[in-house]
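Human: Not sure, check this?
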Amino acid sequence: MFENKSTKENTISILLVEDEKVDAMAISRFIQNEKLNYKLDISDSLKSAKKSIKLNRYDIIISDYRLADGTALDVIKLAVDIPVIITTASGSEEIAVGALRAGASDYLIKDLTGNYLKMLPVTVERILKQKELQTYELMLSQVLKDMADSVIILNKDKKVMFVNNAFLKKYGYLESEIIDIEASIIWSDKTIPEKIFNQKLNYSYKGEHQHITKDGTIFSALVTSTSIYDKSKKPFCYVTVCHDITEIKQSELKLEESAKELKRSNVDLEQYAYIVSHDLKEPLRMIYSYLELIGKKTENKFDKKLTDYLNFAIEGAKRMDELINGMLSYSRVGFYPKRLSSVDLNEIINLVKTDLSSRIKESEIQIEHIKLPQISGDSIQIRQLFQNLISNAIKFRKNKNGRIQITYKENKNEKIFCVEDNGIGFEPKFHEKIFTMFQRLHAKDKYEGTGIGLAICKKIVENHGGKIWAESEPGNFTRFFFTLQKKEIKK
């Protein structure tokens, strides 16, 4: 046995089956002289080779054709999946063809000068590379066979050359029925294959199509296809994966229907809230008027207890009127369709400051803003949004040095606005609660209002495709942020 001194990790293990000692020594000496990274075992008979193959794992076997107790064809049978190179002193074509048909990987003809040995390293390297490629091909074939999605490989003429098990199960064909058949057989629209299987270099395709099984069942499939090219950059096959998306499409349809139903339901609720709120105002106005009339008619006639009861009733009616007005304002945001136009926010702020001029003057609060952009939106709703936020800041100011700052920034998709005040603030745990209808953080006798203003702000922002949130620190500040979609304003 001869073992090269090179690293064992890349060492090629070879079994030489040769009963002529001179030839065996010639090969061994050649390997040593050429410093080939081979580990060589030598068997001088078929019997000895059988034992070596059983005990060891070889990368390749080199066998003389004629042995004392058999031939190289017997060695091939023992080798199973080990490549075998046959050497022979005879140049008989019949022997060579017979050996190759029996499974030999190659053969070398011995010559007296030993020139055939020079072919040995090249032959070994080529055969091992072929074996490695075959192993990869086998692995790839097995992976494709076992894939959960249907795989179909077409040749350059768009005919089927491979299908996996999932394809056969899904489409209902036997392998013999589908191989070498036009690819259009599985498409509901028979013109599709010619359109998607393209001869352009580096071409790949992905799209949804209607496929048809052997029994005529039609289903939705997501088709992904890639062209494979030869050395001349011409496509020689198309690898296509078909994923059944029937359940996904059904789920999307159900989701779409649910969204439509939810939208219809929301519209109905908004209309109901508007109508109910509107219709409640008249009987409430009548109750309030009669309570005031009773108060005037009975002035100084009731004792203190009855007078207090009457005042409670009047205050309750006023409170209910405020709530109904708030509900009407809230429902109007969704009841009427948006009238989109180019809105100059600088003008909007000036209009709001005019509307709130008496409160601003009374509170001595300072309102500052940078130059704001134009947006695409409903000017009435946007005006109400800023008015509610500024009113909120005025209401919850501290006693003096009140300040409101309005700024904005933008990113790729949206504009982000901030309305900040230095008022009383609120606890972080109320960040979500403040945008809910009728939710108040303070007693109504301390701060007026219905608890609807910020809910209206939220609805307006969402109606414009944005979102709103707040940050606050009790006693220091409150910041309201909201986003509006970034759209080009056509002038």
User: Anything to note?
Assistant: Residues 1-8 have pLDDT under 50 and may be disordered. Residues 251-333 form a domain with the Helix Hairpins fold (CATH 1.10.287.130). Residues 29 and 415 are 81 Å apart (CA to CA).
